[in-house]
Amino acid sequence: MRTLKYWQAIAEGLVQGMERDPDVFVMGIGVDDHKGVFGTTGEAFARFGPARVFDVPIAEQAMTGLAIGAAAMGKRPVVVHPRTDFLFLATDQMINLAAKWRYMYQGASEVPIVVRSIVGKGWGQGATHSQSLQSLFGHFPGLQVVMPALPRDAKGLMLAALQSRAPVVILEHRALYETEGPVPEAPEVTPIGTAAVLRPGRDVTVVAASAMVLEALAAARQLEPLGVDVEVVDVRSARPLDTETIVASVIRTGRLVVADTSWPTYGLAAEVAALAAERAMGALRAPVKRLGLADCPAPVSLPLERVFYPDSTTIAAECLATVGRAAAELSARPVEESSFRGPY
Amino acid sequence: MRTLKYWQAIAEGLVQGMERDPDVFVMGIGVDDHKGVFGTTGEAFARFGPARVFDVPIAEQAMTGLAIGAAAMGKRPVVVHPRTDFLFLATDQMINLAAKWRYMYQGASEVPIVVRSIVGKGWGQGATHSQSLQSLFGHFPGLQVVMPALPRDAKGLMLAALQSRAPVVILEHRALYETEGPVPEAPEVTPIGTAAVLRPGRDVTVVAASAMVLEALAAARQLEPLGVDVEVVDVRSARPLDTETIVASVIRTGRLVVADTSWPTYGLAAEVAALAAERAMGALRAPVKRLGLADCPAPVSLPLERVFYPDSTTIAAECLATVGRAAAELSARPVEESSFRGPY
Amino acid sequence: MTSKPAPRRGRKRLGSRRRQPAGSTSPKSEFLRRLYYELLRVRRIEEKLALLYQEQEMRTPAHFSIGQEAVAVGVCAALTAQDVIYSGHRCHAHYLAKGGNLGGLVAELYGRETGCARGRGGSVHLTDISVGMVASSAILAQTVPVAVGSALAFKMDASPRVAVTFFGDGAVDEGVFYESLNWAALKRLPVLFVCENNLYATHAPIWVRQPKGTEIYRRAQAFGVPAEKIDGNDVFAVYQSARRAVERCRSGQGPALVECLTYRWLEHVGPLDDTDRGYRSRRELDAWKRRDPVKVAARQLGALGVLTPPAIQEFEAQIAEEIAKAVAEGKQAPWPDPRDLLRHVY
Amino acid sequence: MTSKPAPRRGRKRLGSRRRQPAGSTSPKSEFLRRLYYELLRVRRIEEKLALLYQEQEMRTPAHFSIGQEAVAVGVCAALTAQDVIYSGHRCHAHYLAKGGNLGGLVAELYGRETGCARGRGGSVHLTDISVGMVASSAILAQTVPVAVGSALAFKMDASPRVAVTFFGDGAVDEGVFYESLNWAALKRLPVLFVCENNLYATHAPIWVRQPKGTEIYRRAQAFGVPAEKIDGNDVFAVYQSARRAVERCRSGQGPALVECLTYRWLEHVGPLDDTDRGYRSRRELDAWKRRDPVKVAARQLGALGVLTPPAIQEFEAQIAEEIAKAVAEGKQAPWPDPRDLLRHVY
Ligand SMILES: Cc1ncc(C[n+]2csc(CCOP(=O)(O)OP(=O)(O)O)c2C)c(N)n1
Ligand SMILES: Cc1ncc(C[n+]2csc(CCOP(=O)(O)OP(=O)(O)O)c2C)c(N)n1
Ligand SMILES: [Mg+2]
Ligand SMILES: [Mg+2]
User: Fold this and answer.
1) Which of B58, B87, B91 maximizes ligand 1 atoms within 8 Å of its Cβ, making it the mutation to test the pocket?
2) C227-231/B180-182 β-pairing
3) Could you give the C-alpha distances from B307 to B322, C42, C126, D19, D158, in angstroms and in order?
């Protein structure tokens, strides 16, 4: 299969979704400019023009309301936010209206909007350009929340979102944009609400989301030579969460580490740990461990960013701990010098 | 000790806090009208007048920003929302600014605002007048979130909030407003971040929040004749959560039921269950159970409201299950006819 | 699958539910009588609902529009069944004036499965897609941008449909209102903003919330939205203004705003008088009652020779019958089945 | 305990960091020279930072103000050290013009412990409480209501202090801006809204976001906020307008807005030219460069006989020295200790 970068997969999914359904349109800051939201909307703009891909006033709340009102008339609006943090301005429309619409009006109409947003990380993104809101949106019945980690799911979940009856939040991760992977050319949907076991393993389950999936896979590789066999589960959807797949894996391995892109407290890591406590308790052979952001807002300075974000080594250390071994056995992974050039 | 109603305790805490600190002022919809936010601001208005208790334009986002800007200049604003659901409009200011302020500017200044809001329940409050946002606000470092259940803590936590250096969210519960309990006359603080074991018990721990605390106590009474001894822990603060008290209780009883006023998924119930999975796993003798709202927006119609909200009987049934007994042993608690008259 | 609202075409016109009693019979006078009929009908329904509300069997906070009906009726008379409307918490009159099913409203207030939102939405979440009443909601100003979005869809489809948003002077305090004005004007969208300025939000008079000397309609003008302020208690004035605005919208000239000055007779939420609570005076209410939109319309039409006392009596009888039936049915209607609690969540 | 900002009283006036070179010596001309000095200083600092930024050692998205400095300098010259300012993402110039510590800015960009936010905030979260630069933030329009809140505190304390909020034409799209105008006018608060209209938000020209024919300052007027639009590249015009507005504020007459027309020379974020990207033209930039605020000011003062080429040269030398020192120190400054990661969370 040919490979695509994550951003290319998003772009392709969007274009195929727009081909399929003439009611899809895209609006957001800079969707039609030369950068095209880091490359993800440029092709759609080139193909479908300003009637279906257009720039907007910077008014996140109204934009979301507009999307809802257009959706109620049969459109399928895709709203794009260059940073997930801006969504706080849209939470009333998303949670108090879109999420509840079908229920409050009991199916009289539906508002299948798609809200795309990008989670920032590193290079001094700082406290308000780096947040990932899966647990916030996941808490409310009526929304679907997806978090693609691999390029194929970036495309597949985009296509799924464009066909869902529910309002869907897509949380993309900026740190994944340049990662590559196989992506089918056909418009293959990744079903919303399904997790994926990306690597089977016997000893410990790592349930991970978004960018942490790649860290989990790296951790699994780090642990291979030490004889610890890690199963990596990519949640893919934060709501609905694929509880069957997660619980089955935990029951198989008897050990659970959860690695999320947000804070553990009241986070996705808490939800997954709670699932284990409810439904896999008898099988657990070690305490569950949650990993996520350090318990502070995101700092800017590099040495602080380095300790703020968990990585594969942190995950590997916790996996070792669940089998009663010491993190000291791990050789430190060299800090990778990224080719990234600012200002982001 | 004399007894007060919950709303009276709030009113008294507010007045004593305002006496103590001339920088405290109160703003919000209707804080100065004849209803005085269900009685909680009337006395403060009578005592301190319109200079310190005043009505506002209906603009939740700006109001929160104003509070922050006044706090940065040394004031202690108390912002009041008649329903917690309106806070979605203020999440950007609360989470992207107030919560992060001290950290982002590294202590150069602080913005100790107090955000009071009331959680609605029943009598057809419906989907957007009934939400409780503890897990949403609890997820973000930099905020404190309290949820008084008893009148004494309604006062004590109000006083604590007015002395905290952090921005504090107080989630009051409308269904508790007419409940009564002993309240000290002195301005005694309930320390933020401390849970309370309201009833010691041997067999099962019920960790409950806000209105569910009263249901948990009722469940404990229902189970007494059946020989099941329930320990009831009132979380009181959702952030910081008193993990020591919670974990110690779970380790003591070996069983855990969590009862929250919001949805279990990504909720406070998840966080508490996760704590048990991380720190009390070895002691657990039964799967953890989470209780909260049914997984849909709040309906209006009475027969639906009745099944939407868990109550003491639901809690009691789950407690029985943790000790391997059947809910059938419970005699149904009669539906209490409330003396409440609409429209709320 | 999205349900595209496909409003019933050719639904009966305003007031045509029954044959009209005689009087002048030109199409114009027929139309004027229908306006009056509709106005009277909304008034009588709300009065009845307010009465029944006191039995404490409608467990849903209800905001009555008594005194303000001319806005809903006048504006909706300027719309076709294909046009859509949105409203806020005070939405019964808008729902009814757009042709929303009465039985569906009554049953909704009683929390029944036959309610327009099947007892899930309550008084503040009315919908009747078949007549273009898309949604009302309980969060202030929330449906304002939503109406703009529907207008965006109409414009994208080159459809002649128009979207209307009804909101109060309190919603004007919210920032999203201005975001919406800006957007509508920028994209020249066929949306009509109808501000029902009843001088109060809850118990706060407008001067506690908006600077003295400023005008809501002038704010709209600053965004390039043509706007005027009119007597909201004169159903014919409302109709005329709305008609001009809707024509503008339909002909692709973009949005408009109509600020309708009016007054709420009952308490903010609930069925009672509240002039003894201190925030407004009996005097003020009485002055406004002298400008009762129903009586004003009757006087105007009487003077034109278009409406006679017997005609009014016949209207009253028809309306009373319709209401009695809807109430009887609503009270008897089945409750939602608790097993359906989770229906219509994704 | 809250830290009440207690701005250093009697801090040195603008440009007085060094003895000024001769020329006309009246207080007025002295003041005018100081304005020029400040303008030149902000320009040279930003130029140097933009150059250094290309070394990829400042890991923080930075929005340079080159071309727009006259707004910051002109407004801050009308303020006292007790007055406070707030800004958004494009905040270096505001921080500097208000007297913010240069070393603190440079070190912040380098992510060092000696930065004004100790490396936790970065380019978009500047603060120097000692001079009344309270906060800048990266969310559009976020600090607009915050400034209004500080003004509310001043009014409650009957203090003569004034709060200023700097924001762009893009922030004007956000609803909270109007909520803030409404509030400020309603309560007659001593707050000055300064809109730096540089005709673009990111890559979107203003006409893509705001209806043609509308004016930002007129929107403010519709809320009862006195407002005017001025040449934002003329530091003296800005100063005059700001001074009048600040006097209004200080004398209890309420808020004002100044819309300053100006232009950004560099890309939206980052240190480079971007006229080859298609969203704006080299021609347009060149036209604006002919109205370079620094050169305009030099010409004006030269014509008045207040500023001589040798004086400018001496200014340049002083500034270069100050910058060199700050940069050297910033690059050498200690990094935050990772063990302090959780400091200053509650
Ligand atoms: C966002 C939000 N804030 C506050 C409220 C509480 N609230 C309900 S109705 C109302 C007053 C509305 O006033 P107005 O818009 O003038 O409508 P009216 O009731 O006068 O018809 C308020 C403040 C709300 N529903 N939503
Ligand atoms: C709420 C929010 N939405 C979007 C953004 C992304 N963003 C950052 S700067 C900018 C443009 C700002 O334009 P303007 O206010 O005119 O300031 P300028 O950059 O021109 O100085 C945008 C859209 C943001 N930071 N915050
Ligand atoms: Mg009103
Ligand atoms: Mg700009």
Assistant:
1) B58
2) unpaired
3) 22, 35, 23, 79, 55
Q: Which residues have C-beta atoms less than 6 Å from ligand 2?
A: A 29, 58, 60, 82, 86, 89; D 63, 89-90, 138-140, 168-171, 198, 200-202, 264, 268
Asked if omega into A240 is within 30° of 0 (cis), the reply is yes
Q: What number is the average pLDDT over the span B285-314? A: 98
Q: For residue A172, report the phi and psi dihedrals to the nearest 5 degrees.
A: -90, 160
Q: Contact C59/B128, CB-based, under 8 Å?
A: no
Q: Is residue D229 packed enough to be buried (19+ CB in 10 Å), middle (13-18) or exposed (0-12)?
A: middle
C54-101 pLDDT, tens digit per residue, is 999 999 999 999 999 999 999 999 999 999 999 999 999 999 999 999
Q: Which ligand is nearest to the CA of A80?
A: 2
Residue B213 · residue B198 · CB < 8 Å: yes
Cα–Cα distance, A118 to A170 (Å, whole number) = 8
Phi, psi of C67 (to 5 degrees): 100, -20
Q: CB–CB of A102 and C345 under 8 A?
A: yes
Nearest ligand to the CA atom of B55: 1
Structure tokens at D173: 């799209």
Phi–psi pair at C92, nearest 5 degrees: -55, -45
pLDDT-above-90 percentage for chain B: 94
B333 band by pLDDT with thresholds 50, 70 and 90: low
Residues A188 and A156: beta-carbon distance below 8 Å: yes
Helix, strand, coil shares of chain C, percent, nearest 5, are: 45, 10, 45
**Nearest-by-Cβ selection for B69 from D146, D175, D176:** D146
Kindly report the number of other CB atoms within 10 A of residue D3's CB atom.
14
Packed helices D293-303 and D69-76: angle between N→C axes, nearest 10 degrees: 60
- Looking at chain D, which subunits does it touch, using at least 3 CB pairs closer than 8 Å as the criterion? A, B, C
From residue B198, how far is each of B99, B222, B232, D302 by CA, in Å? 31, 16, 6, 79
Question: How large is the ipTM?
Answer: 0.97
* Distance (Å) of CA C209 to CA A170, A205, A228, C31, C263: 38, 56, 65, 39, 17
CB-count exposure of residue D22 (10 Å: 0-12, 13-18, 19+): exposed
| C211–D178 CB contact, under 8 Å | no
The catalytic residue among A12, A81, A129, A318 is A129
Single-letter residue type at D250: R
Three-state helix/strand/coil letters over A207-248: EECCHHHHHHHHHHHHHHHHCCCEEEEECCEEECCCHHHHHH
* A210 in C contact zone (CB under 8 Å): no
Would you say D257 and D178 are in contact if contact means Cβ atoms under 8 Å apart? no
Contact D136, D88 (CB under 8 A): yes
Between CA A342 and CA D3 the distance in angstroms is 35
Q: Whose CA is nearest to atom 11 of ligand 2?
A: D201
Q: Give the distance from residue A313's alpha carbon to the nearest chain D alpha carbon, in angstroms.
A: 17
Q: Rounded to whole angstroms, how far apart are CA atoms C304 and A336?
A: 86
How far apart are alpha carbons C36 and C125 in whole angstroms? 27
Q: How far apart are CA A21 and CA A112, in angstroms?
A: 13
CA distance D245 to chain B (A): 20
For residue range B45-87, list pLDDT tens digits in order.
999 999 999 999 999 999 999 999 999 999 999 999 999 999 9
Distance (Å, rounded) from C-alpha B139 to C-alpha B151?
A: 26
Chains that touch B (3 or more CB pairs under 8 A): A, C, D
Over chain A, what is the mean pLDDT?
Answer: 96
**Dihedral over alpha carbons A19, A24, A29, A33 (to 10 degrees):** 20
Q: What's the gap in Å between C219 CA and the centre of ligand 3?
A: 17
